[in-house]
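Input C-alpha cells:
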C-alpha cells in the first residue's frame, strides 16, 4: 500500500478550557511564582498527556505587570512527570500585559517554537518573578497530528542572555526610530541552531507608552542582520507584549556563533529594557 504524507498542520491541542470570563487574564493554567523574590515556583500542569505528535508550540503568558511595581519574570516550559525536564528555559515574561480590561492595551507575551513533542507527553510550566507568590496564567497551543511538518523542527531550546533569573541583558534603544548599537547576547553559542526566538521585558517601575522594534544579528563587529523589526509595545501601567510577529527567525547558526540584538524606540526611551534569545536545535 502506498502511504502518502498528509500536508499541513492538521490538528491543534491546547489548555484553554472553556470561554474566558470578563476580566480574566487569559484562558490557560494558573502558574504561581516562588515565595521568595526571583525564585521559581512549583510546576503547574498544562496538559496531562498530549493527544498527538506535535511540531509547533505557541506559548502565551499574561497578567504579570503591576503599576509602579518591578515585575521582571522568567518562564519555563517543562516536559515529563514528577521529575520534569526543562524543555523551554527562561522566557523573559516580565511585565507581561493583562488582557480583557480597559487599561490593558498591549496583549499577552507570545513565543512560537518549532519543536517536536511526542504524543503522550505531560507539559507543565513554572516561573520566577520579582513579585512573590504571584499567580498568573500560561497558555499553550500545539500543532501537528497527521503526516510530517513542512518545516524543520527541533527537540531542544537553549536560552542566551539570562545569567541570573529573572534578569536579561540590558539593551539601549535608539530614540525616535533610530537604531541603537548592537548589544552582545552571547559571545559563542553552545549548540548548532536553525531558529532563534527573541524575548523582551521592561524593568523598573517608570514606564511610558512606547513601541520598540528589535533586530537580531550574528557575527562580530560587522553583524549580519538575520531578523528585523520585531515589535514589542509597552504601556504606562508597566505592561508589555510581543514579539510581533510571534514567530522565530530561521537561520543556520553554527555552534560558536556570536549573537547580538539592537533596538529602536518610537520616541525617547520610555523605560529600562532587557532582552534574551532562545535558540532551537
Amino acid at each position: 500500500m502506498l502511504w502518502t504524507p498528509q500536508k499541513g498542520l492538521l490538528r491543534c491541542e491546547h489548555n484553554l478550557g472553556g470561554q474566558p470570563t470578563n476580566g480574566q487574564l487569559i484562558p490557560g493554567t494558573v502558574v504561581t511564582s516562588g515565595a521568595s523574590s526571583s525564585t521559581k515556583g512549583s510546576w503547574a500542569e498544562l496538559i496531562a498527556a498530549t493527544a498527538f505528535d506535535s511540531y509547533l508550540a505557541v506559548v502565551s503568558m499574561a497578567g504579570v505587570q503591576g503599576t509602579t511595581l518591578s515585575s521582571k519574570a522568567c518562564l519555563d516550559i517543562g516536559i515529563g512527570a514528577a521529575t520534569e525536564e526543562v524543555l523551554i528555559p527562561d522566557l523573559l515574561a516580565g511585565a507581561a500585559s493583562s488582557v480583557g480590561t480597559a487599561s490593558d492595551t498591549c496583549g499577552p507575551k507570545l513565543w512560537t517554537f518549532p519543536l517536536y513533542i511526542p504524543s503522550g507527553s505531560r507539559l507543565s510550566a513554572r516561573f520566577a518573578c520579582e513579585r512573590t507568590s504571584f499567580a498568573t496564567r500560561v497558555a499553550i497551543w500545539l500543532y501537528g497530528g497527521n503526516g510530517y511538518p513542512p518545516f524543520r523542527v527541533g527537540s531542544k531550546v537553549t536560552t542566551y542572555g539570562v545569567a541570573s533569573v529573572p534578569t536579561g541583558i540590558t539593551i539601549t534603544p535608539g530614540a525616535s526610530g533610530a537604531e541603537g548599537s548592537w548589544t552582545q547576547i552571547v559571545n559563542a553559542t553552545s549548540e548548532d541552531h536553525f531558529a532563534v526566538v527573541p524575548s523582551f521585558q521592561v524593568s523598573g517601575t517608570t514606564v511610558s507608552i512606547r513601541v520598540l522594534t528589535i533586530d537580531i544579528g550574528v557575527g562580530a563587529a560587522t553583524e549580519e542582520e538575520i531578523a528585523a523589526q520585531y515589535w514589542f509595545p509597552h504601556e504606562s501601567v508597566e505592561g508589555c507584549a510581543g514579539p510581533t510577529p510571534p514567530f522565530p527567525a530561521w537561520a543556520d547558526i553554527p555552534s560558536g556563533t556570536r549573537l547580538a540584538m539592537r533596538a529602536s524606540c518610537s520616541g525617547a526611551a520610555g523605560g529600562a529594557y532587557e532582552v534574551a534569545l532562545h535558540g532551537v536545535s
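DSSP finds no helices and 18 strands in the chain. The chain has a mean pLDDT of 87.
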